TrEMBL record:
<keyword id="KW-0238">DNA-binding</keyword>
<keyword id="KW-1133">Transmembrane helix</keyword>
<feature type="domain" description="OmpR/PhoB-type">
    <location>
        <begin position="132"/>
        <end position="240"/>
    </location>
</feature>
<dbReference type="Pfam" id="PF02518">
    <property type="entry name" value="HATPase_c"/>
</dbReference>
<dbReference type="Pfam" id="PF00072">
    <property type="entry name" value="Response_reg"/>
</dbReference>
<dbReference type="InterPro" id="IPR003594">
    <property type="entry name" value="HATPase_dom"/>
</dbReference>
<feature type="domain" description="Histidine kinase">
    <location>
        <begin position="559"/>
        <end position="831"/>
    </location>
</feature>
<dbReference type="InterPro" id="IPR001867">
    <property type="entry name" value="OmpR/PhoB-type_DNA-bd"/>
</dbReference>
<feature type="compositionally biased region" description="Low complexity">
    <location>
        <begin position="838"/>
        <end position="868"/>
    </location>
</feature>
<keyword id="KW-0902">Two-component regulatory system</keyword>
<dbReference type="GO" id="GO:0003677">
    <property type="term" value="F:DNA binding"/>
</dbReference>
<feature type="region of interest" description="Disordered">
    <location>
        <begin position="256"/>
        <end position="283"/>
    </location>
</feature>
<keyword id="KW-0597">Phosphoprotein</keyword>
<dbReference type="InterPro" id="IPR036388">
    <property type="entry name" value="WH-like_DNA-bd_sf"/>
</dbReference>
<feature type="DNA-binding region" description="OmpR/PhoB-type">
    <location>
        <begin position="132"/>
        <end position="240"/>
    </location>
</feature>
<dbReference type="InterPro" id="IPR036097">
    <property type="entry name" value="HisK_dim/P_sf"/>
</dbReference>
<keyword id="KW-0804">Transcription</keyword>
Length: 883
C-alpha cells in the first residue's frame, strides 16, 4: 500500500550530500520532494512546481537564498520558506526572517527536528483563517481592504510609501525595527540613496499620525498621545501608551487632572516661617548661567565682549574729559573772583550802572557785611532777562556758617521773579549755582567789613553739558563703528573655524573623505588645518584597513563555519538516517551508502581542518623553516611531471623566464623562452615550496580543460628592491608592474637583490580582472560547485600566498597572452655581489673573486649558458643530498 503524500517540498542546496540526505529523510517521512542546486534553478523549479514548502540554503553558487526568497515573494509565491544553512550569525537569522522566511535552522541539524519544524509550518499555514482587515494600535486604525487610515475618528491621508511604512510598524507593534529592516521591507532594497530616507518618512508619519488634535471632555484641544517612538542607535517602533486620559499619555508617578498633586512644602527657616534656600541653589543658578553662557556662539561672545569693552572705554574717557573740563572751568572762575575782588569792590557804582541783563562772567554778586557778619547792603544783584534776579544763598545775617575767608565755595541760587512768568531757558539759567568767596576788607590794617563776591556757574554748566552731549554722540558712534568692524573682523577670523566645524560635521556623519581647506601654515588656523588633515588621512586609511580586515575576518569566519558545518551536517544526518531506516527492508545496503557518505564528508572535513591549521601556523610564523638549501628547479620539474600525470592529454612546455625592458610605449614585461629549466638554488623551506607549486598545479588541473596547454618557466633576475619591501606588496598586477620597474633598474645598474621568478601560464577560461586579486583570499573559489566536485576547499591559494610571504617573496595573478591565467611567484635568492676594485698593475685586489672573460656577472643562469659542476642528485623534496 503506497504512503499518502503529506505535502510537496522543494529542497535547494548546492551540496549534493545534503540534498540526497534531505530527499531520503523527507521521502521516508511521506513528503514529495524536488531539488535544485543553485538559486536560479530553484526559482525555475519553485515557479513550476508551486510547492507547499521550500527548504532553502543561503550560500548558493549564483544568488544567495535571501535573494531567492525576495524574488519568489515578488512573483506572488507565498509558500513558506525554511532556511537550512551553516550561517548562524544573528544578523543572518534576522535577515532570513525579515525577507520572508518562516523558520531558520542551522547546520549541523537533526533530521527529526527539521521534519517536525516542516510539519509545524505546514500546520500553521493550512489552518490559517482570514484575518480581520482592521489593524489597530491604540486609537490608530488601518483598513487593509480599503487602505483607509484613521486616528481618534479622524481620517489620515497617506502616500503609498507612508502607508507601507505605517503598516509595517503596526504589524510589528512593540518591536523595534532597524533602518535596514525597514529599508528591506518597505523599499525592498530598490532605494539606492541614503538610509536617511527612513528618518524623513518617519518624520512625515509623526506629523500626520501624532499631530492629530482632539477635544477632551472639558472642551480643550490638545494633541493626541504619540505612538511612534525612536530608540536612538537602534531603530523605530510603534506602540499604544499604557494609560490614556482624554487622549493625553500620563506617565507613571505623575498627576493627571489635578489628582495626586505634589503637596510637599519647601523647607523653612526656623522661627521665621519663610522658605529657606535649598542646598545647592546658588550653585544651580551658577550652573544655569554657565550653561547659557556656553550655549552662546564664540563669535557672539567676542563681539559682545568687544562692545562692552568699547562702551566702558568710551564712558571712562568721556567721564574723565567732563571732570577735567569741569575742574578747569571751576578753577578759572575761582581765580577770577579772587583776583578781581578788590577791583569789583572799588567799582561798585560803575558795575551797578552797567547793563547786566545777561548772565555771564561779568555778572557779579556783591554783599557787604560788618565785622559781626551782619548784612549792611547788597549793592550788586545781577538781573537776568525778563526781570528775573538770581542771587546765591548765603549764611544768615550775623553768622558765617562754615564759610572760610579766602576759600571759594559753591552754593545754590535763589530766584526772584518780577511777576511775569519767565521762559524755561531763563529760569534754568537763573537756577544755576553760584561760586562765592568771602573776603575781609582792611583799612589801615584794620578789619572793617566782610564782603561776599560771587559769579554764576550757568555758562560753565552749559559748556560741560554741551561737551557731555558731544562725548555721548561721538562715543556712541565709536561703539557702533567698533562693533561693526569687530564683527567683520571676528567673522573673517572665525570663517576658517566655521569651515572646520562644517567639515567636522560631515566627518561625524561618516564622510571620511572630507578635508579642511588649506590655509597658510604660518597661521594658527593653517597649522591646525594641516594637522587635522594629516590626522584625518591617517584615520581614513586606518578605518579602511580596519574595515577591510574586519570584512575579511567576518567572511573568513562565515565561510569557515559554512565549510566545516556542511560535512558535519552530512555526517550527522546520514548517521541519523541510518537509525531511522535500520529496521526497514534493505537496511544493509542503505547502511553502506550512509557509511560512504559519512566517510567522504569526514575526509573533506579532515582536509579543511588541516588547511586551516596550516594557515593558522603560517599566520603565527610557525611551521616553516627557510634556512634549508632548496633546489627550486627540481621542485618545479616535479610539479610539471605531476600535472602531466594528472592530465596526460595536456601539452606542458618548460622553459626559461626572460625579461624584456621597456621599449617606447611598451612597458617592461616577463616572457617565455623555450629553453631548459635553469638551475636555481635558494634558501627556503623545501616542503612548503613544494606545497606552493603543487597547489598551483592542482588549481590548473581543477579549473582548466584537460587538453588546454600550459607553460612552466623559471629564471633569475636582479631587482633594485629589498626582500622585506617585496614581501609587503599586495598580490596585484600593479605590484607586479612595480617589481618589473625595479628589475629594469637593477638589470641596468647591477645593484639590488637576485630573485627567482617562477611562472605557471595556462590557456584556460581565465579569471576576470576584478576577481584576480581575490584568488588568494581564503575560501574564495571562482566556481564553488566545480570546486566541490573536484575536492577544492578554497584555501589552497591562500596557503600559497602565506608561504610565499613567509619567504619574503611575492605572488600575483595576471592574464596570459592569448587568454588564460598566469601565476607569477618571486622568491629572493641573495644580494648581488659587488665586484672588488682592481689593484695597481691590473691585478685583482686581494680576496676578490675572478670572473671569466666574456661572462656577465649578472647574466641569468641557464642550462646552455652556464655549465656548473655536476650537483648531487636531488630527492623529491628538492633538497640536495650532501655526500
Amino acid at each position: 500500500m503506497s504512503k499518502t503524500i503529506e505535502a510537496s517540498i522543494v529542497v535547494v542546496d548546492d551540496e549534493p550530500s545534503i540534498r540526497e540526505l534531505l530527499v531520503a529523510s523527507l521521502h521516508f517521512a511521506g513528503f514529495e520532494v524536488q531539488t535544485a542546486a543553485s538559486g536560479s534553478e530553484a526559482i525555475e523549479v519553485i515557479e513550476k512546481a508551486q510547492p507547499d514548502l521550500i527548504v532553502l540554503d543561503v550560500m548558493l553558487p549564483d544568488i544567495d537564498g535571501f535573494t531567492v526568497t525576495r524574488r519568489i515573494r515578488q512573483e506572488g509565491i507565498d509558500a513558506p520558506v525554511l532556511f537550512l544553512t551553516a550561517r548562524d550569525d544573528t544578523q543572518d537569522k534576522v535577515m532570513g526572517l525579515t525577507v520572508g522566511g518562516d523558520d531558520y535552522v542551522t547546520k549541523p541539524f537533526s533530521l527529526e527536528e527539521v521534519v517536525a519544524r516542516i510539519r509545524a509550518i505546514l500546520r500553521r499555514t493550512r489552518e490559517q483563517v482570514e484575518d480581520d482587515p482592521i489593524i489597530r494600535v491604540g486609537d490608530l486604525e488601518i483598513n487593509e481592504d480599503s487602505h483607509d487610515v484613521s486616528r481618534a475618528g479622524q481620517s489620515i491621508d497617506l502616500s503609498p510609501t507612508e502607508y507601507k511604512l505605517l503598516r509595517y510598524l503596526m504589524d510589528n507593534e512593540g518591536r523595534v525595527l532597524s533602518k535596514a529592516q525597514i529599508l528591506d521591507h518597505v523599499w525592498q532594497y530598490d532605494w539606492g540613496g541614503d538610509a536617511a530616507i527612513v528618518e524623513s518618512y518617519i518624520s512625515y508619519l509623526r506629523k500626520k499620525v501624532d499631530g492629530i488634535m482632539v477635544t477632551d471632555e472639558n472642551g480643550e484641544q490638545h494633541k493626541v498621545a504619540p505612538l511612534i517612538e525612536t530608540k536612538r542607535g537602534i531603530g523605530y517602533m510603534i506602540r499604544a501608551p499604557k494609560t490614556v486620559q482624554g487622549g493625553l499619555m500620563v506617565k507613571e508617578g505623575t498627576a493627571a487632572h489635578g489628582t495626586g498633586a505634589d503637596t510637599s512644602v519647601p523647607p523653612t527657616v526656623p522661627g521665621s516661617g519663610k522658605p529657606s534656600k535649598t542646598p545647592g541653589k546658588e550653585s544651580a543658578i551658577r550652573r544655569i548661567v554657565r550653561e547659557r553662557w556656553n550655549a552662546i556662539s564664540l563669535s557672539t561672545k567676542l563681539v559682545t565682549t568687544l562692545l562692552v569693552l568699547l562702551t566702558i572705554g568710551v564712558a571712562g574717557i568721556s567721564f574723565s574729559i567732563r571732570q577735567l573740563v569741569s575742574n578747569y572751568l571751576l578753577e578759572k572762575v575761582d581765580a577770577q573772583i579772587v583776583q578781581q575782588a578788590n577791583l569789583v569792590f572799588q567799582n561798585i557804582n560803575r558795575l551797578r550802572d552797567s547793563d547786566t541783563n545777561s548772565s555771564g562772567m561779568t555778572s557779579y554778586f556783591l554783599q557787604i557785611r560788618d565785622t559781626d557778619a551782619n548784612i549792611l547792603t547788597t549793592p550788586l544783584k545781577p538781573t537776568i532777562a525778563e526781570g528775573v534776579v538770581s542771587e546765591p544763598i548765603l549764611p544768615a545775617s550775623g553768622t558765617m556758617g562754615d564759610v572760610v575767608f579766602g576759600e571759594p565755595f559753591t552754593t545754590s541760587a535763589i530766584v526772584h521773579l518780577s511777576g511775569e512768568i519767565p521762559s524755561r531757558s531763563t529760569l534754568s539759567t537763573a537756577r544755576a549755582p553760584w561760586r562765592v568767596v568771602a573776603m575781609r576788607v582792611m583799612q589801615n590794617d584794620n578789619f572793617v567789613n566782610i564782603v561776599f563776591i560771587g559769579l554764576p556757574l550757568g555758562d560753565s554748566i552749559d559748556t560741560i553739558s554741551s561737551l557731555t552731549r558731544y562725548c555721548i554722540m561721538v562715543g556712541t558712534a565709536v561703539v557702533l563703528l567698533g562693533g561693526v568692524l569687530g564683527m567683520l573682523v571676528v567673522q573673517g577670523t572665525l570663517a576658517p573655524l566655521k569651515r572646520i566645524e562644517k567639515t567636522a560635521a560631515k566627518i561625524a556623519a561618516g564622510d571620511l573623505k572630507q578635508r579642511i581647506p588649506a590655509t597658510p601654515e604660518n597661521t594658527e588656523i593653517g597649522s591646525l588645518s594641516a594637522s587635522l588633515n594629516a590626522m584625518l588621512a591617517r584615520i581614513e586609511r586606518s578605518f579602511h584597513e580596519q574595515q577591510e580586515t574586519t570584512d575579511k575576518m567576518k567572511r573568513f569566519v562565515s565561510d569557515a563555519s559554512h565549510e566545516l558545518r556542511t560535512p558535519l551536517a552530512a555526517i550527522h544526518g546520514y548517521a541519523e538516517l541510518y537509525k531511522m531506516q535500520r529496521d526497514m527492508p534493505g537496511a544493509l545496503e542503505r547502511a553502506d551508502e550512509s557509511i560512504a557518505h559519512i566517510e567522504a564528508s569526514s575526509s573533506r572535513m579532515t582536509v579543511l581542518v588541516e588547511d586551516l591549521l596550516s594557515l593558522a601556523r603560517l599566520d603565527e610564523g610557525r611551521g616553516i623553516d627557510i634556512t634549508q638549501q632548496v633546489n627550486l628547479t627540481a621542485i618545479v620539474k616535479d610539479a610539471a611531471d605531476d600535472l602531466h600525470a594528472l592530465d596526460p592529454e595536456r601539452g606542458i612546455t618548460c622553459g626559461a623566464v626572460g625579461f624584456m625592458p621597456r621599449q617606447g610605449d611598451e612597458p617592461s614585461r616577463l616572457m617565455f623562452e623555450l629553453k631548459d629549466l635553469p638551475a636555481i638554488t635558494l634558501h627556503g623551506d623545501a616542503s612548503r615550496l613544494r606545497q606552493v607549486v603543487t597547489n598551483i598545479v592542482g588549481n590548473i588541473h581543477r579549473y582548466t580543460p584537460a587538453d588546454s596547454p600550459v607553460e612552466v618557466s623559471m629564471g633569475e633576475v636582479i631587482a633594485s628592491i629589498g626582500g622585506d619591501s617585496l614581501g609587503r606588496m599586495p598580490a596585484t598586477e600593479q605590484s607586479l608592474r612595480h617589481f618589473l620597474d625595479a628589475v629594469e633598474v637593477g638589470q641596468s645598474v647591477h645593484v639590488g637583490m637576485r630573485y627567482a621568478v617562477v611562472r605557471f601560464s595556462d590557456h584556460g577560461p581565465g579569471v576576470p580582472a576584478e576577481s584576480r586579486s581575490r584568488i588568494f583570499e581564503r575560501f574564495y573559489t571562482a566556481d564553488p560547485s566545480r570546486a566541490r566536485q573536484k575536492g577544492g576547499t578554497g584555501l589552497g591559494m591562500a596557503i600559497v600566498e602565506s608561504v610565499v610571504k613567509a619567504h619574503h617573496g611575492f605572488i600575483c595573478a595576471c592574464q596570459t597572452d592569448g587568454g588564460g591565467l598566469t601565476i607569477v611567484v618571486v622568491l629572493p635568492i641573495a644580494p648581488v655581489e659587488i665586484p672588488a676594485m682592481s689593484a695597481p698593475g691590473g691585478k685583482p685586489a686581494k680576496g676578490a673573486k675572478q670572473q671569466k672573460s666574456g661572462k656577465s656577472l649578472f647574466a641569468p643562469k641557464s642550462a646552455k649558458s652556464a655549465k656548473p659542476s655536476k650537483p648531487d642528485k636531488p630527492d623529491r623534496r628538492g633538497v640536495e643530498r650532501k655526500p
